[in-house]
Amino acid sequence: MMALTLLVYNLGQRKLRQQLQQSGETVLDQKQKPTSKPTLRWILQKFQAIHLVTLGSAQQVSNLTDERSKIIRLLGLPYCHYYLLN
Questions:
Q1: Global pTM?
Q2: pLDDT tens-digit series, residues 5-21
Q3: Crossing angle of helices 66-75 and 2-23, rounded to 10°
């Protein structure tokens, strides 16, 4: 189980780093400095504050900053659908 977990973690981190490198973009690290090689642990910590709010039939994602939106877009279309981004 641990090996599978580490594999998924590594694949996610690799995909994000490749996308950042290809696009020439950066994200902020723990010291608020731009980096093109963030750890997936740091990215997951950034996403802890995001929540899906449902009121009646309307759904909205709260605490979705510009940087978080950029990370989601870099990860690909399935992530954009999950976080209700166009």
A1: 0.84
A2: 999 999 999 999 999 99
A3: 110
